[in-house]
Amino acid sequence: xxxxxxxxxxxxxxxxxxxxxxxxxxxxxxxxxxxxxxxxxxxxxxxxxxxxxxxxxxxxxxxxxxxxxxxxxxxxxxxxxxxxxxxxxxxxxxxxxxxxxxxxxxxxxxxxxxxxxxxxxxxxxxxxxxxxxxxxxxxxxxxxxxxxxxxxxxxxxxxxxxxxxxxxxxxxxxxxxxxxxxxxxxxxxxxxxxxxxxxxxxxxxxxxxxxxxxxx
Length: 216
Prior knowledge:
The chain is an all-alpha fold. It contains eight helices and no strands.
């Protein structure tokens, strides 16, 4: 096996594993019931008042974001087109863990358990994003939109990401107040995710850097 094939295989495996870990984090946020991450806040609210699953709602929002991304780019790029396919795959994986494995049916009876599960969800979300970025393959649609906007406005990815997350949270609150008559999906877990996901990603990057330095 050539070095190029081996490298591509390694990247693919890291990407697939990261995608699954991110999906697990998404489902665990819903299990914790302390508020979901900004990434899936809108899909979570949609799944509460529409006859669709969390995975289906996530696919729908991701597809909307891909269309928005194409409008911003004003051209077709295979990386963006591939996000259409990724949207369906990610939504299916979310429902697989949530419905087929049954994680969404888990009942947490104490606040401590909710905090523990939400904390695990934050770590999984950060680790999943970190692995997918390291694989350098296809961005998930939310990050794809943020990337395009940051390039268009010549702003840092992190700053645009923060504004994007806040926008998703606001949309979630508005939708939940209109259709559910209460704030749903947003809570202390959401705040924890906003504050900690980026920090955990930085931690994983630093750990990888140290490992690579030792290997050299």
